[in-house]
Amino acid sequence: MMLHLVLGVAIVAGAAWGAAALWFQSPYRGRARAALPAAWLALAAAALSGQVLGHSFPAWLFGALLLALIAWWTLGVRASNDRQWMPEVARQTQGSIEGDIVTLRNVRDFDWRSRTDYDIRWETRTYDLTRLASVDLALSYWGRPAVAHAMVSFGFDDGQYVVFSVEIRRKLHDVFSEIGGFFRQYELAVLASTEEDSLRVRTNVRGEEGYLYRVHMPEGAARKLFLSYVETATRLVAKPRFYNTLTGNCTTIVYRLADEIVPGLPLDYRLLLSGYLPEYLYRLDALEGADSPEAYRQAGHYTQRARATSDAAEFSRNIRRGVPGISQTPDQDASALPTAGARSSSM
């Protein structure tokens, strides 16, 4: 009896996994896309029926085909950089390092007017690591308080900022699916961009809510983190990999890079529920200038300041007005732009 129960559970699990894999990796679109998953589920139903009626052959057949499917999945579904990509991820950032000087190629600096109307600009920029002055975490929310896109912005004392973002590299006509992210539907990219591009497009064009946090790191750690991003981005050009909703996303990759620099960082559920990263950073004493995560969140909410800024040259300065841990000049304190509409501190 127990054996039959175990086999039944295994068939159901294999049916669900296999149907999802065939759906997300199907070469077909429209109604034809459902043909292979439907056939797979029909075979699973036959296997379950055979179990109930005491016939083991359908279950053995299903098991053999499941092993074949797993083998195809493991050996045949490979990440690639050679696809028709969405314009915003059409290129990959890569860098070269000579002493303290880092040259980044394919830094994105799009001028966004709407989701479909924008000027395409890919630039080569040079950064002097001896002038690296700050590290900021930017979180962008689009609905649920537990889920946010995490980006890291590095600031230099010559006024430059460069944002590193772990991105889903979407193909033309792709529609994002969190479930699809478990089934090798998307490749992964580490993209460098300007703040006027990657931060502004989220608040001013996509209607997301943006929050900024100044992160204080041990001496030398910011430099190592910057170089880790450069090396990871460059490695993906030569060896592509898949995005994974659980193990290879914007937050878990930030953690892996940081753990290489400060070993032994504690694992925490907030590394998966990225909307709660401020509480994690507060626990690590990486935030300064406010006495609670709620206070950081309230003051670091920059959406209205971003939308009120029409001059791109003022964008980086304006979104930092009033952010805890960032030194404010007298003119910033006197002319701080509104922060109305901040999220509830219950996030």
Automatic annotation (TrEMBL):
Residues 121-275 form the Lnb N-terminal periplasmic domain. It comes from the Bacteria. The chain crosses the membrane at residues 6-24, 36-53, 59-77. Residues 321-347 are annotated as: Disordered. Keywords: Membrane, Transmembrane, Transmembrane helix. InterPro entries: Lnb_N. The keyword Transmembrane applies. This is Lnb N-terminal periplasmic domain-containing protein.
